[in-house]
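so my prof wants the structure for this chain in the tokens format not the other one, which i didnt know existed until like an hour ago. anyway here's the sequence
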Amino acid sequence: MTDNGGLTPVFCTIVPPHVLDRLARHEDPALSGPARRSLEHDAYQRTKRRLTTVVGAPAVAAPAGAAADQPHRTVYDAGHTQDLPGHRVRAEGSDPGSDASVNRAYAGLGATFELYLKAYGRHSIDDHGLPLDATVHFGEGYDNAFWNGEQMVFGDGDDEIFLDFTIPVDVIGHELTHGVTQHTANLTYFGQPGALNESVSDVFGSLIKQYTLGQTAADADWLIGAGLLAPRVQGTALRSMKAPGTAYDDDVLGKDPQPATMEDYVRTGRDNGGVHINSGIPNHAFYLAATALGGYAWEKAGRIWYDVLTGGRLKKDAQFADFATLTVKAARERYGAGDELQAVQKAWEEVGVRTL
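here's what i got, hopefully its the right format
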């Protein structure tokens, strides 16, 4: 259950549909073929997710007698099929094997679990020790990674535009955070609440990377998916929280469409109302607040965002102004009328979102 009266998991991918749509229209079959197959995979999984939402998904609980403060990870190999979860290849506590994708997925699951536990006292995705499952080598040249409401799934990429999706730990943290949102605020995946859903995943995905690397807000690159783009691509990542709209500018992918402020808010019917595009605005607000406060971003700015996500006052259909207002209230309640409050207020002001 969620704080908003019902579990409504959604199908969330790290690569936006508009990116794959553009690739699918390319004249080079080496680029268009994997993109088209990836879109077909996504459409199938999205439909399956909707059906599961209607009939109900099987309940998943931590193993009997298992400690809630320890992760319970299982990694599977789909063998380039679409069959989930696939063949089990690594269980909790087992040694690394020869498959780098398996090892990275296992480590990323652990890094996500650790950040939520150590920084916020959260026991896995649902706060009740939910097992963390992941499948690697999904599909043939699959250009995406996703959370399907029950587990993580990673493609290998096509090696032309995208590399293996287990490479960036923030991608793993991003997708698992969709599970945290699913079990807490349960933000509707459309329009501004959908963009907030995506932004929250980017925020905590970035914090998981920073925590893993021991980086301060000043040291962090604030990129989502750095290391994911193949060498031929003119770009550094999928998104930039520091400078939305600058992550890539490529003759195949096009130019990063994310706005940094409400002045450039994109109104579109694609991508569930631009959830992967307009998330740049709250992303930038978090970056501004975190860098203004300095130090480790998960400690203060991250704490404020986590308080809002899990506090029970964030509505499923929250708009940017609603979320911003709650971050101001959370900053005041936790830290008083000090630097934290001022940093949050100024951040939202700079991106053009009014607090109520």
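also thought this was worth mentioning. The first strand starts at residue 12 and ends at 13.
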